[in-house]
Amino acid sequence: MIPLSLWRPFLIALGLLTRIPAPWRGPPPEPRELGRSVLFYPGIGLLIGVMLVGVARLLPASLDPGVQASLILIGWIWLTGGLHLDGLADTADGWIGGLGDRARALAIMKDPHCGPAGVMALVLMILLKWSVLKTLLEHHDLEPLLFAPLLGRLGIVALFLTLPYARPGGMGAVAAAHLSRPWAIGVILSGMVWIGVTGGPILAMAAGVVWFGLRGAWNRRFGGTTGDAAGAACELIEGVALTAGLF
Q1: Most exposed: 25, 87, 104, 246, by fewest CB within 10 Å?
Q2: 19 assigned to some structural domain
Q3: Is residue 160 part of a domain?
């Protein structure tokens, strides 16, 4: 039974990261609740992985693996509302269009329109996920599909923990500012250890390497992280973790 003090943060995380209905009663979320909600991100990632594996197991074996991969990917995007894909597109636009200027990059990332760099990033990520999913299905290996969403959201927690929030204001800045460091460290370590001992050490190592690279890149280019940059990191970590599952 989840205590009431954690129930609302859990629902906040569920409502933000998925399309699963997560109504809560009472006043708007308090800053501390937003900070606590971040601690549930990896758990929501694991839930997403479990649901995707469930979809994969329910698909008829007679379907071509390419068709199965397409259906799983469509379900993946629908379940998450394309939230982190949007962050990937915005971050790609800011990275290219900012021309090394931090303020310009952040302004571009805030623009709701998607530029050429964002479109290319979306196409390449979806193509990577589809091709890897197809290969995994051909080999009847669904373990990377279970772990990848969890690793991606562990990366978000780690970014909020170790980088300043580059754009003041907004829900993301409040959540990052009120994130409990001891609890966040515990969530990250326990998640990585669990993945390592349950069959995904290569995935965990690959995700860690990518995360360190992105953390440095975001800090140099944006002066920290934003919600879009964290979403982009989630997508990139997912893609690399899935690919690492082929080895």
Answers
A1: 25
A2: no
A3: yes
